[in-house]
Design brief:
The complex is a heterodimer of chains A (about 200) and B (about 80).
Chain A lengths: L18 H9 L17 H19 L4 H23 L11 H24 L7 H7 L2 H11 L2 H12 L4 H25 L7
Chain B lengths: L1 H27 L14 H18 L2 H5 L2 H5 L6
The chains are: A mainly alpha (about 200), B mainly alpha (about 80).
């Protein structure tokens, strides 16, 4: 907020006049996702590295030779500190995912660490694994399902199976029904890959 | 010596993963339609580059030192 944007000045956070937009227009060739900038543009890559580092930091904690509950405690402290820090910093620099503000790094990172801690506690420490199977099917092939949307067009089989039924549902429920059945369609595809042990690794 | 080789392997893997993710992201954006201008920035590219640079720092720098990068990336606050 302190670096002046040529022709604009400092502290402007609108989509067309922020420093993020300025740097993208200056340095990034090609077409943008939004009119003036990219949500995955150049400048916002730097705080995104910090987000990735938070994950690595959690890895350091989990890799240590200390007791499981000690790790849970340390991760919980980290999560609370990040969430609080994000909320406080939000007062100065607003949480904004599209330009990946540092308050967003703290807050979203804190929520993620909190969830990681919860799942570590339930799945690894308490050893309650079975319920997580549907999620493991998705997580083992997360990039596959992301790329399958434009490439394979799973909406076609989804429409084929579920568009008919949805007509008999009350208006307000149709969208919800179609959303959940679409997720189900994708999941069945992923389950097939899981059974065949086909995983996309990069 | 052996540790140096192992590190080289890890770094190779990180760089390969970065490149593959950036390319997959461009594929997702419809790069193969060959319509210009193309959109180079992508979600997978963001994941690849942010992961890769964070991972390289973790590999090359001592544990505590690599966390220091958090500070410069927060100086971004002063940027937008």
């Amino acid at each position: 907020m302190l670096v002046p944007v040529p022709g604009v000045g400092t502290g402007i956070l609108t989509p067309d006049k922020s420093l993020v937009a300025y740097v993208d227009q200056l340095l990034l060739p090609g077409r943008f996702y939004f009119e003036h900038y990219n949500p995955e543009g150049i400048l916002s890559t730097f705080p995104a590295i910090a987000t990735a580092q938070l994950g690595i930091f959690c890895g350091f904690i989990l890799h240590k030779n200390s007791g499981a509950y000690r790790k849970v405690f340390q991760l919980s402290v980290l999560a609370v500190a990040l969430i609080m820090g994000g909320l406080i910093w939000n007062l100065v620099f607003p949480i904004n995912k599209n330009i990946w503000t540092s308050s967003f790094v703290l807050f979203a990172g804190g929520l993620s660490v909190a969830l990681l801690t919860l799942f570590y506690l339930i799945i690894d420490v308490w050893n309650l694994k079975k319920w997580a199977f549907p999620f493991a099917v998705i997580g083992m092939n997360s990039i596959t399902i992301y790329l399958s949307q434009p490439i394979l067009g799973l909406y076609t089989p989804h429409q084929f199976f579920f568009a008919g039924i949805s007509k008999y549902l009350p208006g307000g429920l149709q969208e919800t029904f179609m959303t959940f059945t679409y997720m189900f369609t994708c999941w069945v595809f992923l389950y097939f890959l899981y059974r065949k042990k086909i995983f996309l690794k990069v | 010596m052996q540790q140096g080789q192992r590190r080289q392997q890890i770094v190779g893997h990180i760089v390969k993963r970065m490149v593959v993710l950036v390319l997959l992201g461009m594929l997702y954006n419809g790069f193969l339609s060959f319509e210009w201008p193309a959109r180079y920035a992508s979600v997978l590219g963001r994941i690849g580059i942010a992961y890769g640079l964070a991972a390289l720092m973790a590999v090359y720098w001592p544990k505590k030192f690599s966390m220091l990068f958090l500070a410069p990336s927060f100086s971004y606050t002063g940027q937008c």
